[in-house]
Amino acid sequence: MKKIFCLTLLVLTLLSLPLSCLAASHPGMDVSDWQGYIDYTQVKNAGIEIVYIKASQGNSIVDSHFRTNYENAKANGLKIGLYHFLTARSVPEAEQQAQYFASVISGTSPDCKLAMDFEVFGNLTVEEINQISLAFLQKVQALTGKEVIVYSDASNAANTFQRQIADTYPLWVAEYGVTTPKTGNWASYEGFQYNDRGTVPGIQGYVDMDTFTDNIFLTSGDTIATPENTTNNVETYTVQPGNTLSQIATQYGTTVSEIAGLNGISNPNLIYVGQVLKIDTTNDISVVNSDKYETNHIVYTVQTGDTLTSISQKYDVPIRCIVQLNDIANPNLIYAGERLRLDLN
Fold first, then answer.
1. Which of 216, 212, 265 is nearest to 237 (CA)?
2. Which of 16, 169, 185, 257 is most buried per CB count within 10 Å?
3. CATH number for the domain including 187?
4. How many domains is the chain built from?
């Protein structure tokens, strides 16, 4: 009777998974600073094999948990993929963000294809979206020597990304509540994000759940080298009495999260006099006000007493959009002097 019960339980468990999970046999998840601290020992013991980690966003944002996630996942023997959240609005900016992504992930040794996450398009036309995507993908592959993959929901895979991209780059598709996802202009997929409200031991709260095929793995596991023309754009700054990260970020035209990520600072409120900080001056975020952006993009400087709620109400922008676009780890914690990009579409 006990054997029959266990066999029945196993069958029911398998039936609760997407059919692709049974075929691909590489259960995975994708994470960012939204998940906070992750116990990768528990994750590994739960059967997760692959974790895709957010590395960077836009022109100047490093995910604040990127290095911790990477190092701890590696230490526990998980296979790792890295992704960039693309916000470019022109081909030159796409190439600039590719350069930035390659710089952020230099020194790492990912196991899986590098991913482009491009899903917030603003007023871009389909043609512009594809030109920007192609420029980013080509540049990342050229700079890193690694294969790349496109992350997209099923709708954009069918209606936005065109055959030129689909015929050249593989697909990591997101579609929930189905066992077999639609792949649009792609003949197949290498990754399938089937749930955005998954639970995994070692993670507090929800996490995106995925399954991957064998084709997701890179053909080379070599360490990613630092792009040559980014090394001279990192300056150092010695913290002075009275300094805050917000003040320093404003001075250099960057963000608190960028400085924190580049220097491994877990608490942005805690820096000390004499501390030497690395500052990436490649992309001053003040360029958001230049002509290459639409007029519906602005940069807002946080004032004393501001909250994300008050800023959201003032500019009629959803809080979740502000959080996502600026890679804010804690929506309840913003700093006077911090500059936030707002998409007023």
1. 265
2. 257
3. 3.20.20.80
4. 2
Whether 30 sits among the annotated catalytic residues: the reply is: yes
61 contacts 282 by C-beta, under 8 angstroms: no
Q: Residue 8 falls within a domain, yes or no? A: no
Which of 189, 216, 243 is the endpoint of a domain? 216
Same domain, yes or no: 56 and 124:
yes
Share of the chain above pLDDT 70, in %: 84
Which H helix or E strand runs over 194? strand 191-198
Look at 289 and 16; give whichever has higher pLDDT.
16
Q: Quick one: tokens of 18?
A: 């997407």
Highest averaged pLDDT of the listed ranges 173-187, 248-262, 263-277, 308-322: 173-187
**Domain co-membership, 69 together with 111:** yes
Residue 86 pLDDT: 96
Query: Which residue in the list 49, 119, 153, 306 is annotated as catalytic?
Result: 119
Output the pLDDT for position 136: 97
In a domain, 6, yes or no: no
Strand partners, 171: 150
- Choosing from 30, 33, 175, 210, the catalytic residue is 30
210 belongs to a structural domain: yes
